[in-house]
Design a protein that fits this description.
FAD/NAD(P)-binding domain; 29% strand; alpha+beta; 9-stranded mixed sheet; 335 residues; 5-stranded mixed sheet; D-Amino Acid Oxidase, Chain A, domain 2; elongated; binds flavin-adenine dinucleotide
Amino acid sequence: MDRDVIILGGGMAGLSAAYFLSQHASVLLLERETALGYHSSGRSAAQFTVGISAPTMRRLAQASRSFLEAPPDGFAAAPILSPRGSMTVAPAGQEAKLHRQHAMLAEAGAGARLLDATEALALFPALDPAQVAAGVFEASAMDIDVDLLLQGFARGARAQGAMIATDSRIEAIERRSGRWTVRTDAATFSAPLLLNAAGAWVDQVADMAGRAPIGITPCRRTAFTFAPPPGMDTDRWPHVNSVAHDWYVKPETGRLMGSLSDQTPTEPCDAQPDDLDVAQGIYNIEQATRFTIARPLSRWAGLRSFVADRSPVAGAGGRVTRASSGWPARAAAAS
Ligand SMILES: Cc1cc2nc3c(=O)[nH]c(=O)nc-3n(C[C@H](O)[C@H](O)[C@H](O)COP(=O)(O)OP(=O)(O)OC[C@H]3O[C@@H](n4cnc5c(N)ncnc54)[C@H](O)[C@@H]3O)c2cc1C
């Protein structure tokens, strides 16, 4: 079957690319798993923030805001973003880091404000007052309804004629007469453009296609949920994280989600939670708050994948480049 573009990977990167490209071209998306968003995209903390260390990612997040706040009619049956806010807190002696974060957020146009300890505690009353000297608050940080967003991209892409095939195991990728041929266990497809949006597996896919790796490192992050203390209404509390990046907590439909903010380099895989990371995350949260976490209610892990400078990567064929100021995608197009 001939198409203009074949996209490999049915996570946020591949599905959003399918949605926008199918407005101009015939698109086929192949996903290896039986469900879209099975890996990183279905396991995130679902936070929209521009408080990201890589400058290009900050600008991309800010540039995405208008679409997420007001997607086209019919894209989603409910709002994709809902107010949450994000607060970073620091103990005495680490305030300078908060000032740097405040400047970074201001540069990205996020309108954050510095807080004293009293203001930080008012926003997140479970913090241990002895551990909080100051905070910075990004009021415009949001919760993302990730499933709604993924399904919106998938439904919209299909409505524009894209084919999305899950459970598609790729056996070979070949370049013949100016076209890419992708053979799965079920069929053979061809297109002049192949878009590699395989997340943690982008270098494996590049290798299958005979292209140079981009040097991606998948990093495992473990997360868990726990019950809020009885009588505490936490639903309107912000996402809160430590300036040292060694824990975060956010409300999640009647529960709280926590993480150690771990980033352990690993092979691309179906990431599983690590018991020690869960235990260390609970310990760090208990040190900084008044929570006592008897046991997590659920736990999971996923992969966050980066190149060395944490910028997105885009480009064509062997000429893939870091998009430090350019094209917005963690994907490599090969032509
Ligand atoms: C615990 C955790 C918390 C996070 N929190 C946030 C957050 O709050 N906010 C935020 O913005 N981001 C967050 N992230 C990061 C975010 O989830 C990822 O950046 C994003 O989902 C990456 O999307 P992706 O499409 O690149 O990768 P993925 O979702 O992993 O998609 C890649 C897809 O490619 C498929 N694939 C691989 N190889 C092949 C092949 N050969 N053929 C076909 N398909 C293939 C895979 O099966 C997979 O479905 C978090 C991540 C984790 C793990």
